Amino acid sequence: MFDFDIVCVGDTKIDIFLTLHEANAYLRLIKETNELAIKFGEKITVDKADVLPGGNAANVSVGTSRLGLNIALVAEIGKDEFAQKIISALSQEKVNVTKVLQTEGQQSSFSTVINYKNERTIFSEHVKRQHDFYFEDISTKWIYLTSLGEMWLDAYNKTAEFVKKTGSNLAFNPGTLQIKSGKDCIKNVLSVTNILFVNKEEGEDLLGYPQGQTSIEDVITSLQRLGPKIVIITDGDNGSSAIDEKGNILKEEALGEKIVEKTGAGDAYSSGFLGAFFYGKTIKEAMAWGAKNSAAVISKVGAQTGLLYKTDF
Questions:
Q1: Which residues of the chain have pLDDT under 70?
Q2: Which residues contact 296 (CB under 8 A, 6 or more apart)?
Q3: What is the pLDDT of residues 205-220, one digit of tens each?
Q4: Rounded to whole angstroms, how far apart are CA atoms 105 and 59?
Q5: Measured distance CA(298)–CA(201) in Å, rounded
């Protein structure tokens, strides 16, 4: 029997970061439509290229491991040279990879991130996988469930059943595919969720609300009615909000750290919050840990590079 503090369930991949200077003659930001125009057919020089491990579940597993917790990752990857890079990086971060499935004949998933004008544009690939996870020999205090690729429903149902059977706590951060599928498709997970993490746009999409027309207070209380005991909403420069089990709404300001690259900001916040909460901190204190961890990550390139250690708080 494996005994952990937190088991992270979700995806892991390789992130390729292409950093381009604002003065690059081949790119142009169309502010009116929020579109990035790239000259077609050109060979474009980038200022810097980084190949780094990423993926929501992997990011949070590394983030919480750095906070001194005993962490395992449940994920499925391919079996190629990049898969070995993923396994090696996780192992170096003291993340248990016993439950990371490597599928013969499949390649690793990739995201290509264009970093331009301090904003990221992500091209994300999800290799079709079975996500045939099993939890029979796992004991854990918390499960952190996050985004998966196309065939995600069975893995989500298995996770919810594990939580019901064992009484483990569940922290939940649905991905884009899950949110687009609608709240009814994930209602069994939401019903057993202790902490729900979403950003403001994701919360609005999950509820079917038009973007930017509903207050944070209305969004967060509506999300709590779906089942989660505590809901956390991050909102970029506007900081974060939380609603506790008694319905009290708390606020935390974002830290004014210089932005280098934003990938992994939400995962870093979740890591900081969950680590603090595990150590018995209040929700307000956990929000401060989340904000500090997120600020550290966006000051570096990559989703894991800037993640803080427990001694940094």
A1: 1
A2: 257, 268, 306, 307, 308, 312
A3: 999 999 888 999 999 9
A4: 25
A5: 19
Query: How does pLDDT run across 193-202, given as a tens digit for each residue?
Result: 999 999 999 9
pLDDT at 1: 67
What is d(CA 307, CA 218) in angstroms, rounded to the nearest whole number?
31
**Positions of E strands within the chain:** 2-9, 13-20, 27-30, 35-38, 48-54, 71-77, 100-102, 110-116, 119-124, 138-145, 169-172, 195-199, 230-234, 240-243, 249-252
- Specify whether the CB–CB gap between 237 and 257 falls below 8 A: no
Q: Across 25-179, where does the E strand assignment appear?
A: 27-30, 35-38, 48-54, 71-77, 100-102, 110-116, 119-124, 138-145, 169-172
The counts of H helices and E strands in the chain are 9, 15
Q: What is the DSSP string of 228-264?
A: -SEEEEE-GGG-EEEE-TTS-EEEEPPP-PPPS--TT
Q: Tokens representing 44? A: 């474009």
Residue 94's pLDDT is what?
98
Residue 267 has a pLDDT of 97
If DSSP codes are grouped into helix, strand and coil, which group holds residue 56?
A: helix
- pLDDT for 197 equals 98
Report the predicted TM-score, pTM, of the whole model to 2 decimal places: 0.93
Q: Do the Cβ atoms of 104 and 79 come closer than 8 Å? A: yes
User: Which structure tokens are listed for 161?
Assistant: 């059943």
Q: Distance between CA 97 and CA 85 in Å, rounded? A: 13
Pick the CATH number of 2-14+55-109+126-308 from 3.40.630.190, 3.30.420.10, 3.40.1190.20, 3.20.20.220: 3.40.1190.20
